[in-house]
Automatic annotation (TrEMBL):
This is Uncharacterized protein. Residues 1-16 form the signal peptide. It is found in: Secreted. Coiled coil: none annotated. It comes from the Eukaryota. The keyword Secreted applies. InterPro entries: 6-blade_b-propeller_TolB-like (IPR011042), MRJP/yellow-related (IPR017996). Keywords: Secreted, Signal. Belongs to the major royal jelly protein family.
């Protein structure tokens, strides 16, 4: 019986792993340089140090898959990039977006261009064919921590690759010596592009910044649910012990009701609890900043032991929240029609070799789930082996991913 149980478990694991299609796999990332001379000059000047370029965030728009490379360390050649999805090339070089100049740090008295991207962690494409980027404005984060520009929302027209708007976050949107903005989620109803809102979590300052596109204005919200759980900050990922204090990090939007409002699901990274609030609370500046709105936030439940999560995304058709599982090397799901607890959470992918630190996930317009894993703890605190595949991007259809889990309707 024991042998049969072990065999069944092995078959189940293989079946789950077979669901994922490996689209990209890199030992170290390269870039589509204008020519060899430009690459050699960048290497010589320390502007490109191959091992310091770690892909972190992703987003799909048509035939482009955007891949961000934050400037954790010196020598990051370009922070906002894309790779074409056809022709298929698993080791494709990253193409800077919108171009090389926008991703080059100014030297001396050079002016930062309005379309410049200093360092971004995550981006979001909306139904209006716009790419929303949250630029931290900081280079060499783990080294000299060079503040090049204030944190900003940068919006591009994906059909023309032209800048639509750059909005610098206001000083009052930030908490001195604490704020760090590494995610952006766009709330827009198709056909009402000018009424869009963006939600930008502050993982270090434990706040949430809301930006109104129509008003070109922003406001900062505070709530106890935005803080990390001190009991859940210790994690072992890929053999690396880490102690993190990251607060509100991942956000996901449920389906819109007849008024255009949605449930906004959110969590701290160093936590296993999921929370929610109706978007009408966030979008109304008067209500959002009123202390009486405190009770309008809801505890959805606990995802279970060792279920710390970075990114999350909601699939409206299945009514399922998908979220990364950092300690478990995978991605999990929860059907929002059910109570959120460990029993109702299903693993849609788990691989202790290839899914170490599932940093970002997205669901595209065709309902494909995209997963990026990058071994980030080892990159930050140890050293990655350049002879091994360190960075992977997978995809799988949402319906296939949740099949056989508690997330099926």
């Amino acid at each position: 019986m024991l042998k049969l149980a072990l065999l069944a478990g092995l078959v189940g694991f293989c079946a789950a792993a077979a669901k994922l299609e490996e689209v990209f796999a890199w030992k170290e990332v390269s870039y589509a340089w204008p020519n060899d001379e430009a690459r050699n000059e960048a290497v010589k000047n320390g502007e490109y140090i191959r091992e310091n370029n770690l892909p972190l965030g992703l987003e799909r728009w048509k035939d482009k898959l955007f891949v961000t490379v934050p400037r954790w360390k010196s020598g990051v050649a370009s922070s906002l990039n894309y790779v074409p999805l056809s022709p298929a090339n698993k080791t494709a070089s990253l193409i800077p977006y919108p171009d090389w100049k926008a991703n080059t740090i100014p030297k001396g008295e050079e002016k930062l261009e309005d379309n410049a991207i200093v360092s971004t962690f995550r981006v979001s494409a909306d139904s209006c064919d716009r790419l929303w980027v949250i630029d931290t404005g900081v280079a060499d984060i783990l080294g000299g921590y060079k503040i090049i520009a204030p944190p900003a929302i940068v919006i591009f027209d994906l059909t023309t690759d032209k800048l639509i708007r750059r909005y610098n976050l206001k000083p009052e949107d930030q908490k001195a010596d604490a704020s760090f903005f590494a995610n952006i989620i766009v709330d827009v109803i198709p056909g009402k592009c000018d009424e869009a809102y963006a939600y930008i979590p502050d993982l270090g300052g434990y706040g949430l910044v809301v930006y109104s596109y129509a008003e070109n204005d922003s406001w900062r919200i505070k709530h106890n649910y935005f803080h990390f759980d001190p009991i859940q900050g210790d994690m072992t990922i890929g053999g690396v012990d880490i102690q993190w204090t990251d607060g509100i990090f991942g956000l996901a939007l449920g389906p819109a009701d007849e008024t255009g409002d949605r449930t906004v699901y959110f969590h701290a990274l160093a936590s296993t609890t999921e929370f929610s609030v109706n978007s009408s609370v966030l979008k109304n500046k008067t209500i959002a900043l009123d202390s009486l709105s405190y009770d309008l936030y809801k505890i959805e439940g606990n995802k279970g032991e060792k279920s710390q999560t970075s990114a999350s995304v909601f699939d409206e058709k299945a009514n399922v929240l998908l979220f990364t599982q950092l300690v478990k090397d995978g991605v999990a799901c929860w059907n929002a029609n059910k109570t959120l607890n460990a029993q109702n959470v299903g693993m849609v992918a788990e691989d202790h070799e290839n899914l170490i630190f599932t940093n970002d996930i997205k669901v595209d317009s065709e309902r494909n789930l995209w997963i990026l894993s990058d071994k980030m703890p080892a990159f930050l605190y140890k050293k990655l082996n350049p002879e091994e595949i360190n960075y992977r991007i997978y995809k799988v259809a949402v319906d296939e991913a949740i099949r056989g889990t508690p997330c099926e309707a």
